[in-house]
Amino acid sequence: MTPPRRQRRQPQQDPPPQPPQEGERKNPERLYVVAGPDGERAALDLVTLIVACVEDPPPSATPEQAALLRLCSAPLSVAELSAYLNLPCSVVTVLLTEMLTAELVQARAPIVRQALPDRSLLEAVMHGLQRL
Protein backbone atom coordinates (compact mmCIF):
# COMPACT_ATOMS: atom_id res chain seq x y z
CA MET A 1 0.00 0.00 0.00
CA THR A 2 1.44 3.32 -1.03
CA PRO A 3 0.85 6.47 0.99
CA PRO A 4 -1.21 9.18 -0.68
CA ARG A 5 0.81 11.79 -2.47
CA ARG A 6 0.44 15.33 -1.37
CA GLN A 7 0.53 18.05 -3.88
CA ARG A 8 1.90 21.45 -3.12
CA ARG A 9 -0.58 24.24 -3.23
CA GLN A 10 0.20 27.11 -5.44
CA PRO A 11 -0.29 30.54 -3.90
CA GLN A 12 -3.75 31.72 -4.88
CA GLN A 13 -4.12 35.03 -6.57
CA ASP A 14 -6.65 37.40 -5.11
CA PRO A 15 -9.75 37.71 -7.28
CA PRO A 16 -10.22 41.10 -8.90
CA PRO A 17 -12.33 43.47 -6.79
CA GLN A 18 -16.00 43.41 -7.66
CA PRO A 19 -17.82 46.69 -8.25
CA PRO A 20 -20.11 47.55 -5.34
CA GLN A 21 -23.72 46.47 -5.67
CA GLU A 22 -26.50 49.05 -5.89
CA GLY A 23 -27.34 48.92 -2.16
CA GLU A 24 -23.72 48.99 -1.01
CA ARG A 25 -22.85 52.44 -2.33
CA LYS A 26 -22.83 55.17 0.26
CA ASN A 27 -22.79 58.63 -1.23
CA PRO A 28 -23.07 61.44 1.34
CA GLU A 29 -23.62 64.00 -1.41
CA ARG A 30 -26.70 62.09 -2.52
CA LEU A 31 -28.10 62.13 1.02
CA TYR A 32 -27.54 65.88 1.18
CA VAL A 33 -29.47 66.31 -2.05
CA VAL A 34 -32.31 64.12 -0.77
CA ALA A 35 -32.52 65.82 2.63
CA GLY A 36 -32.10 69.35 1.34
CA PRO A 37 -29.83 72.13 2.57
CA ASP A 38 -31.88 73.24 5.58
CA GLY A 39 -32.19 69.82 7.21
CA GLU A 40 -34.88 70.82 9.71
CA ARG A 41 -36.38 67.97 11.67
CA ALA A 42 -39.64 67.38 13.46
CA ALA A 43 -39.60 65.66 16.82
CA LEU A 44 -40.16 62.12 15.53
CA ASP A 45 -39.15 58.98 17.37
CA LEU A 46 -38.19 55.79 15.61
CA VAL A 47 -41.49 54.26 16.72
CA THR A 48 -43.71 57.17 15.62
CA LEU A 49 -46.34 55.89 13.21
CA ILE A 50 -46.68 57.68 9.88
CA VAL A 51 -49.89 57.56 7.80
CA ALA A 52 -50.43 59.11 4.36
CA CYS A 53 -53.19 61.73 4.08
CA VAL A 54 -53.32 61.64 0.27
CA GLU A 55 -53.49 58.65 -2.04
CA ASP A 56 -51.48 59.98 -4.96
CA PRO A 57 -48.26 61.95 -4.58
CA PRO A 58 -48.36 65.52 -5.87
CA PRO A 59 -46.40 66.28 -9.07
CA SER A 60 -43.89 68.34 -7.07
CA ALA A 61 -42.95 65.37 -4.84
CA THR A 62 -39.46 63.92 -5.08
CA PRO A 63 -39.08 60.19 -5.83
CA GLU A 64 -38.29 59.52 -2.18
CA GLN A 65 -41.39 61.40 -1.01
CA ALA A 66 -43.53 59.51 -3.53
CA ALA A 67 -42.11 56.22 -2.22
CA LEU A 68 -42.87 57.30 1.35
CA LEU A 69 -46.46 58.11 0.42
CA ARG A 70 -46.92 54.72 -1.25
CA LEU A 71 -45.50 52.92 1.79
CA CYS A 72 -47.59 54.91 4.26
CA SER A 73 -50.98 53.81 2.97
CA ALA A 74 -51.00 51.72 6.17
CA PRO A 75 -49.35 53.03 9.37
CA LEU A 76 -45.61 52.35 9.48
CA SER A 77 -42.98 53.46 11.96
CA VAL A 78 -40.12 55.77 11.03
CA ALA A 79 -37.67 52.91 11.56
CA GLU A 80 -39.59 50.66 9.15
CA LEU A 81 -39.72 53.39 6.52
CA SER A 82 -35.99 53.92 6.88
CA ALA A 83 -35.35 50.21 6.40
CA TYR A 84 -37.67 49.87 3.40
CA LEU A 85 -36.13 52.88 1.63
CA ASN A 86 -32.56 51.95 2.61
CA LEU A 87 -31.98 55.50 3.87
CA PRO A 88 -30.65 56.65 7.27
CA CYS A 89 -33.29 57.60 9.83
CA SER A 90 -32.04 61.18 9.88
CA VAL A 91 -32.73 61.59 6.15
CA VAL A 92 -36.16 59.98 6.47
CA THR A 93 -36.93 62.31 9.38
CA VAL A 94 -36.06 65.36 7.25
CA LEU A 95 -38.22 64.07 4.40
CA LEU A 96 -41.11 63.41 6.77
CA THR A 97 -40.75 66.90 8.26
CA GLU A 98 -41.23 68.43 4.82
CA MET A 99 -44.20 66.16 4.20
CA LEU A 100 -45.75 67.01 7.58
CA THR A 101 -45.57 70.74 6.85
CA ALA A 102 -47.19 70.11 3.43
CA GLU A 103 -49.85 68.00 5.21
CA LEU A 104 -49.17 64.97 3.02
CA VAL A 105 -48.72 62.66 6.02
CA GLN A 106 -49.79 62.48 9.65
CA ALA A 107 -47.61 61.47 12.57
CA ARG A 108 -49.26 59.42 15.29
CA ALA A 109 -47.85 58.61 18.67
CA PRO A 110 -47.02 54.92 19.09
CA ILE A 111 -49.54 52.74 20.88
CA VAL A 112 -48.38 52.47 24.48
CA ARG A 113 -49.42 49.39 26.37
CA GLN A 114 -50.45 49.73 29.95
CA ALA A 115 -47.70 49.11 32.47
CA LEU A 116 -49.96 46.92 34.60
CA PRO A 117 -52.68 44.62 33.26
CA ASP A 118 -56.28 45.16 34.27
CA ARG A 119 -56.92 43.43 37.60
CA SER A 120 -60.49 42.40 36.71
CA LEU A 121 -59.23 40.67 33.56
CA LEU A 122 -56.61 38.74 35.53
CA GLU A 123 -59.23 37.69 38.08
CA ALA A 124 -61.59 36.52 35.34
CA VAL A 125 -58.82 34.43 33.78
CA MET A 126 -57.87 32.99 37.16
CA HIS A 127 -61.48 32.02 37.95
CA GLY A 128 -61.88 30.49 34.51
CA LEU A 129 -58.77 28.37 35.01
CA GLN A 130 -59.92 27.26 38.45
CA ARG A 131 -63.21 26.02 36.99
CA LEU A 132 -61.38 23.70 34.62
Question: Can you offer a commentary on this structure?
Answer:
Helices cover 39% and strands 8% of the residues. The chain has 132 residues and is mostly helical. It has a three-stranded antiparallel beta sheet with strand order 2-1-3. Helix 1 runs parallel beside helix 4 and helix 3 packs across helix 4. The radius of gyration is 26 Å and the shape is flat. The termini are far apart.
Give a quick precis of the structure.
By secondary structure, the chain is mainly α.
Properties at a glance:
8% strand; 5 helices; three-stranded antiparallel beta sheet; single chain; mainly alpha; 132 residues
Largest sheet: 3 strands, antiparallel
3D shape? flat
Number of E-type strands: 3
Count helical runs.
5
The share of residues in extended strands comes to 5-15%
Order of helices and strands: HEHEHHEH
Kindly report the average pLDDT value.
Answer: 78
Record the strand order, biggest sheet.
2-1-3
Helix share bin: 25-40%
